[in-house]
Every structure is written in C-alpha cells, then in structure tokens.
C-alpha cells in the first residue's frame, strides 16, 4: 500500500512554525478537503500556561483544528511513546476524513519517532527474554562473584568517588559481557556502565550488537512525508526571543505562574507530580522561585527575567543541535533508499516582509507539488542558508561510529591499582604518552612496564590492533594492561 501523506514542520521556538502551519492548512483546505494540525510540542500538550508555552490563541487559529494540544493535566506524565501512539491515531483519523495531517512542533525528538518507526526502545512487543549466544557464553565463563553481581544488580549505579571498588566491579562485569561497549565507558562513569548492564539484563543481548544492528537497519518512514525546517539566524532569533519574554511579562506571565503554582498546592492525586510535565516549562521554573521567595525584590525579578531569557536561548540551541545531529541524519539515511523524505529549510530570519517570499510562498508551492505527487525542486536551491545548513548535516547516521570515537584504552604505566585502571580516550593517547605525569612514571618503570610502553607506542603508530573480544577480556583481567576493541 502506498504511504499516506504527512507534512511536518519543525524548528526552534519563536520562528513562526504555528503561523506557517495555519497558513498551509488554510491553503490546503482551498484545494483538498482540508487539513488538521497535530501538536508536537511537549509543553503545549498541557492545559494551562497558554502564554508561556506559546499556544496559538483560538482567535488566531482561523478555524483550523488543532489536535493533541492542551489536553493533558499540568502534573500528568506524558512521554514520547504515548505521544507517538496518540499522534498516529490522530493522523489515521485525518486520513480517513481524506484530510491532510500537518505535524508541528519544537519537540523534534517526538517527531523523529513518529516519522521513523522502530527506533524507540520498548516499542517492540514483549516476548520472553532469550539470551543471545554471546551473552550466554559470556555468562557461563563469568567468575562466580561477577555472576552474582549480574544476578543481583544494584537498583542504582554506585558513586565511583564513594565506592570505587563497586564501580570497577561493575565495569569489569560489563567488560566480560560486552567488551566493545565497556571500552566506550570509563569505569568511573558508573551511570553509563550501569545503563549498559541494564540493557544486557533487559534484552539479553550486547548493547554493541544492538547498536550495530540499528546502524544497518534502513529507516523506513511511516508516512510519505514532506518536511519543513523553519530556520532563523541565531543572532536575530535570540533578539526575537528576548523581546518575546518581555512581551509575555507584559501580557500576564506572572498570573499564569501564580495560577499554576496554586494548582500544585491542592491535594495531589497519585499520578500527579508537580516537578514534571508543564512544571518543567521555561518561565515557570524561573518565576516560581521569584514568587515563592520571602521577599520579592526588583533585583530578584530582573534576575528571573534574565534567567528565563537565557534558558530560552539555550533551549533554541539544543533544538537546532537535535535537528542537525539527529533528525537530519535520520532523514538523510532514508534518502539514500527509494523512499525519500524531502526536507526544505525555509529562511524565517526576517519574519516581516520577507516572510511571504521566503517562507509562505515556497511552502505553499512545495506542499501543492508534494500533494499532487509532482517533481519537487532540489532543497539546496532554495537559499544560500538552505545550502549551508542542509549540507553540513550530511553525515551517515551510524551509532557505531560514536562507539568507536569514544573508545578508551588503559595506560598500565599510570595504573596504580589494576582493579581501578587509568583510562584515556584513544584519540588522546598520543598526547597522554607525551604528558608530564605519564613520563614521570615511565622513568620509574619495571621491565614489564617497558614492554607495555612499547606496545602503547606501537598502537599509536599503527592504530588499533585487531584483537578478538575474548582475548581483550583475557588481557584486561589477567594483567590489567591495555585493551581495546
Ligand atoms: Zn600513562
């Protein structure tokens, strides 16, 4: 069956996504049966804080239906998996009515999981846990104390500073179960080591194998999708965001915060958490502190304003980096195959008179062509900004590349206690070998350490030697010397 159409609009806060969506919906309604807007903003799903979360007021919606907006209670938890399910339902309904769904929002993470299925852990149907061959064989050769540790993993990762022995034991366990992933984490990074062990427990498989598999799986889009990335030059955007904060304050931001705060003072139902959901929105956090302080000085107020502006700008930066580093690579990976996801950057730096020529008109034209299944123009020809921003992100989405990039090696010269090895990023090994602390220890080295030193130098010259996973574990556990994968 041919994939059904979907239009997606993403971009940072304050670039005019909602306006574009409404203009598109109205335009489509003239030619097709209609269009509905589906909200993909993690804060706008909640009721309340309409101003702070930038919900389009009813009066500005021009009768266009907005779904999944303001329908969750402020303290309710609502996460990506639930949203994807709700969005799929809303899109199905829209298609049944022969209308066009337009998904709009700043939570690109949600959109990505909607556009490309099967990437979310936990979305697979639950089946009985089957241990993979590699895990089975690793478990059978585990020393008893590590097997016991695996069978009774702690609830929380230990703090390496407080309990280094527990931290290194966890790392050693991971090294036996999945050497490749263990080489990625420093033993002190207990949170990541622990998380990898939990994946082994939950899936019965090596995290590194799961990663490689994901790298090989070609992402198939769920819908025939047309994407618009609404983009504004950061310097211009930041000024715009700053003045938006000032405007919000004038229009009653403090009243919204007060109202929401008083809600949180009422007796809570069991599924309500006043630190989650909308209580995490930018603006609430900053002004809640100000409002609940014993005295509300002008200085404290100004500080809250500055903090909100800063948080907003930082949020916009994070949004851009998600789009460039996660979403676009996922889209590009799809584009390598037969099903493509055409993605256009629309330059919304100037939302005044250039909005029509740079944003609205190209979007309307492209949507028309897309819905008529006509040939679409090359996204890079749209503007100079489009060429720059879309081209730099053209790198393969390969999770194993990250794995390789962060690989750690043990410097046995600098290791005092073999159970708590001294680890260096492989990429920094050359610098480490030349460093003063390392050289000082080299001068005191034993014959074994001389050998090790030469080995490290060879590694530096020739790159990583190809060794099997098993022999690495052997090397590491028997002598506490260099390992890599
Ligand atoms: Zn060293």
TrEMBL record:
Locate the coiled-coil region(s) and give their ranges: none
InterPro entries this protein is in? Dimethylallyltransferase, IPT, P-loop_NTPase
Compositional bias (Low complexity) spans? 476-485
- Enumerate the residue ranges of region (Disordered): 443-485
Give a GO molecular function annotation for the protein: ATP binding
One Pfam family recorded for the sequence: IPPT
What is the superkingdom listed in this entry's lineage? Eukaryota
* Cited HAMAP family: IPP_trans
Protein name, entry field: tRNA isopentenyltransferase
């Amino acid at each position: 069956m041919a994939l059904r159409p979907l239009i997606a609009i993403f971009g940072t806060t304050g670039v005019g996504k909602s306006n574009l969506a409404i203009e598109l919906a109205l335009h489509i309604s003239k030619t097709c049966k209609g269009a509905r807007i589906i909200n993909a903003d993690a804060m706008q799903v909640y009721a309340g804080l309409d101003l702070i979360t930038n919900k389009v007021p009813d009066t500005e919606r021009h009768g266009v239906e907005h779904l999944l907006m303001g329908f969750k209670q402020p303290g309710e938890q609502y996460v990506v998996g639930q949203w994807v399910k709700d969005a799929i339902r809303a899109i199905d309904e829209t298609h049944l009515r022969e209308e066009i769904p337009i998904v709009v929002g700043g939570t690109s993470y949600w959109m990505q999981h909607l556009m490309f299925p099967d990437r979310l852990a936990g979305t697979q149907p639950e089946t009985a846990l089957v241990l993979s061959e590699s895990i089975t064989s690793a478990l059978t050769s585990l020393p008893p104390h590590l097997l016991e540790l695996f069978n009774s993993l702690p609830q929380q990762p230990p703090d390496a500073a407080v309990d280094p022995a527990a931290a290194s034991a966890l790392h050693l366990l991971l090294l036996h179960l999945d050497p490749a992933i263990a080489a990625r984490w420093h033993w002190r990074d207990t949170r990541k080591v622990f998380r990898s062990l939990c994946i082994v427990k939950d899936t019965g498989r090596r995290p590194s194998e799961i990663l490689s598999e994901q790298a090989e799986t070609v992402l198939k889009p769920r819908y025939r999708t047309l994407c618009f990335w609404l983009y504004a030059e950061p310097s211009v955007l930041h000024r715009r965001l700053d003045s938006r904060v000032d405007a919000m304050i004038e229009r009653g931001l403090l009243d919204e915060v007060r109202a929401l705060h008083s809600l949180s003072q009422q007796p809570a139902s069991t599924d309500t958490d006043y630190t989650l959901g909308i209580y995490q929105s930018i603006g609430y956090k900053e002004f809640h502190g100000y409002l609940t302080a014993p005295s509300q000085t002008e200085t404290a107020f100004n500080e809250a304003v500055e903090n909100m502006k800063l948080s907003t700008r930082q949020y916009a930066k994070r949004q851009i980096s998600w789009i460039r580093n996660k979403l676009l690579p996922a889209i590009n990976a799809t584009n390598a195959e037969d099903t493509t996801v055409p993605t256009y950057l629309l330059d919304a730096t100037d939302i005044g008179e250039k909005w029509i020529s740079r944003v609205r008109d190209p979007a309307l034209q492209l949507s028309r062509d897309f819905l008529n299944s006509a040939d679409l123009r090359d996204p890079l020809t749209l503007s100079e900004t489009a060429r720059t921003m879309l081209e730099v992100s053209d790198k393969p989405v390969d999770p194993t590349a990250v794995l390789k990039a962060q690989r750690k090696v043990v410097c046995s010269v600098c290791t005092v206690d073999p159970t708590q090895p001294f680890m260096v990023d492989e990429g920094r090994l050359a610098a480490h070998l030349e460093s003063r602390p390392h050289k000082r220890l080299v001068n005191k080295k034993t014959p074994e350490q001389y050998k090790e030193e030469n080995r490290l130098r060879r590694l530096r010259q020739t790159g990583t030697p190809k060794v099997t996973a098993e022999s690495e574990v052997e090397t590491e556990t028997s002598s506490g010397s260099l390992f890599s994968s």
